[in-house]
Amino acid sequence: AEYMGTSLQSSQYFSVPHAERMLRLAALFVFALALADASFAPGPELNVARIQFASAVCAGKLCVFGGLRTSDAGNHGEALASIECLDLTAANASWRLLHEKLPEPLFAQTAVTLRNGSVLVIGGRNGSQSTTFVQSDHVLVFDPAAETLRRGARLPYAVSSAVAVLSAQSGRVFVTFGWHRNDVCRRTVAFLDEGAERWNVSAQSRYSHCDHGAFLGPDERVFMFAGAADEAPALNTMNEFESKANTFRLWFKLTDARDLVMHASPMPGVALAIGGRDPEMSLWSSVERLNVTVGWGPAGFALPVPLAGGAAHFVNATTLCVVGGFSTALHSLASMWCRTAAVF
Q: To which H or E segment does residue 264 belong?
């Protein structure tokens, strides 16, 4: 199987000479050290502290949708219907609560910005009490210019804690894995072609991910990493969905297992696994960087605090921002941290 011109011999190693592979890893490590002095700075805080919300960069804004607000004691609270947006084009901008709200309180949903600029808000859990939270199959379409919502094509199944990614080439949307019951993780990918009204469903994967990271590689290959699964509190595995062949296979492993991981992709073939929660429920402040030709390694920078359950986005080519999440005992935060560097 070919990937970026390199032949894969197993699920863990590319067929490049060992010495060349070691040189690449050494170069990646030195490069990471060179970035270590660029740190995060605090940004404007959300109006409402929240975890496990959907988020998207759209029309010069960063918007967050719903989520879960918890008490100071860290107990699960109520799902949120509110939407906030930050104007990325204005100096000294503040987060603004929109008049428009989700039609129901919702958390653990995902969002993706389409080629036409609108945003799909997909799945999640709804309800107002922890005993009544149920997975949703609803899809909402957000117009960032008018700041309005309408219903979209419903998913073929209810799901929460999935991750949606877009193929910029074809406009196809992929919704990867996610919980379909509170303790069972889906092993399929749903995908919707641009302009279509009906979702399709992939073959089943042997492995699954929930509360994970995902990004799109070349040739509409979708990569899912970290998160949790049915009986695994945190994973260090990575799974590839070869969409054109409708097959799955394992890929490089992360150094650390991370549930509720935040993730971002600064360029094709590169991904960041940011913070998250380990199998013992302790939180990470560390960041791992994936280069698909050599694997995972240290990113050379870390979060200012241990953090999980928030969202990470590149708001421009050189600035990474991390919003919301929790740092201790599931206590939801309103914080925003941003880091600017020439290269990630």
A: strand 262-267
Tokens describing residue 171? 């406009």
The pLDDT of residue 280 is 93
In this prediction the pTM is: 0.87
Rounded to whole angstroms, the Cα distance separating 24 from 318 reads: 23
DSSP 15-44: SS-HHHHHHHHHHHHHHHHHTTT---EE-P
CA distance 262 to 241: 20
Q: Which residue has 């990493």 as its token pair?
A: 225
Q: Is 273 exposed, middle or buried (0-12, 13-18, 19+ CB in 10 A)?
A: buried
Q: Retrieve residue 128's tokens.
A: 């107002």
Position 14 pLDDT exceeds 50? no
51-80: pLDDT as tens digits: 999 999 999 999 999 999 986 555 567 899
Token pair, residue 195, equals: 């302009």
